TrEMBL record, chains A, B:
Record-annotated HTH gntR-type domain positions: 31-98
Keyword Acyltransferase recorded: no
Protein name: GntR family transcriptional regulator
Gene3D superfamilies registered for this protein in UniProt: GntR ligand-binding domain-like, Winged helix-like DNA-binding domain superfamily/Winged helix DNA-binding domain
Alphabetically ordered keywords of this record: DNA-binding, Transcription, Transcription regulation
Record CDD domains: WHTH_GntR
Annotated TM spans: none
A Pfam family assignment: GntR
Length: 242, 242
DNA sequence: TATCGATCAAGTGTCGACACAAGTGGACCC
DNA sequence: GGGTCCACTTGTGTCGACACTTGATCGATA
């Protein structure tokens, strides 16, 4: 779809906003106040502008967006359902926090589901799909060479989206999108640590090869292992900053 | 928790409302307008009072609940995030429909995740947990003898909740709760078909045995197969009424 | 008679206002 | 000087109102 519409395929840097509104299922009604507020908050959480525990009272936010509290409240509810925000009755909403135990839980599930995506994607990928993934891979490689963590990160996120589309299981994709949102912060920061960027890219290359060979078992295994490696990097990062 | 508080353990029939508000994570703020409206709609969908495609415009609902449209809209958003309601920008919300392809997708994921729950639960169950599950099993047996589909059904739902608690993975539980909500209607009606009730109970017995034996591999396999059987029954039902 | 456009009721998205609850700070007491 | 109670401020949950959009109805036109 995207390669047909307009863009000259490359060099257009990724727009986090676009990816986030995709993950939040807000691509239609992108102009509505609710969507703008939700995406702004989600992006803030993902890029680390809004830290866990940060107060998200609706009055302040309404002021910031020159809107009433109604759309703010709806945006916060939406983000709560995605696990990014904690809302307790009659208390002020806060940016959700992720204790390492919760991170482990998320990755325990995420790992299995991504393996499933790999399995299905390897079975169902067309040659065009593989070619498209190849483009993304090349782009990630350029980002790694340039040491551009942001570019790599969002391209990685986009690639996962494509993988999910290829796997053709909407529910599976929705669940993974939801889990992805909660882990974006951690994944983003952990990518900047040491050799993590290059290691992650190596995993991507292997996964692409398995998919191109239509080896579903291998693809599942590689995705599972790559996810585990991502978790390990995140946990190491958390422990060290503790 | 529940056996300590008040109830005389048995004979108190299950309250669908309670189970549904648990699945919707509305157990606190149960008195708020949003929660009441959301639970009422969800229950309507689950017991078949509100059919797929049914118009859920906020004006009518607000009238029905003597409330303004604000809490109605929030309730509808909540239900949308659980997949029970479809909301398109500037269109009236509708009860979501589940084409058989979507049902297959849900069960494809649900099956793997329930296997995971079985695996974890078998590893982590205490003797008290097994005893509690035994109580539930006995209760289900009475329901089967009496041919009380409703009682069996809600006890089954409750039992799954306990299993998830034993498995001790909050994210996993949340995802399964969300998937459960979408499939409650189908599961409920399919239980009334032919020998489905007795077959389902037999599966429950085997699963309990595996858990009691702390055989995680077997528990995972049995849960996977029982889930597949449930799907088959549902698909057969859908095809036949088509 | 069928097609198209104007007209109009119905519904959505957003707003500002209100009562009540929660948090905050100071006055008061020991 | 440290702890407790009470007023005041801040924020939540809900309300009724408004402009704009959508879809439906009905008449005009070919």
């Amino acid at each position: 779809m995207s390669e047909v519409t307009a863009e000259p395929v490359s060099d257009v840097p990724y727009d986090p906003t676009g990816e986030i509104s995709r993950l939040l299922k807000l691509e239609d009604r992108r102009e509505s106040a609710v969507a703008q507020i939700a995406v702004w908050i989600a992006e803030g959480i993902v890029v680390g502008r809004l830290h866990p525990g940060r107060d998200l009272n609706s009055v302040e936010l309404a002021g910031r967006f020159n809107s009433s509290r109604t759309p703010v409240r709806e945006a916060l509810m939406l983000l709560e359902s995605e696990g990014l925000v904690e809302i307790k009755a009659r208390k002020r909403p806060r940016v959700a926090s992720f204790p390492s135990e919760r991170v482990r839980e998320i990755y325990f599930v995420r790992r299995r589901l991504l393996a499933l995506v790999g399995e299905l994607a390897a079975q169902r990928a067309t040659d065009d799909d593989i070619a498209l993934l190849g483009d993304r891979l090349a782009r990630m490689e350029r980002a790694v060479e340039a040491g551009d963590v942001d570019e790599y990160f969002w391209c990685h996120v986009d690639t996962q989206g494509h993988l999910q589309r290829i796997a053709s299981n909407q529910i599976l994709a929705d669940i993974l999108d939801s889990l992805a949102l909660r882990t974006l912060v951690l994944r983003h920061t952990s990518l900047g640590q040491g050799e993590r960027l290059r290691e992650s890219f190596k995993d991507q290359v292997r996964i692409h090869e398995a998919l191109a060979a239509r080896d579903s078992e291998l693809a599942a295994m590689l995705l599972s292992r790559a996810t585990q490696a991502a978790l390990d990097a995140i946990l190491e990062m958390i422990e060290s900053t503790l």
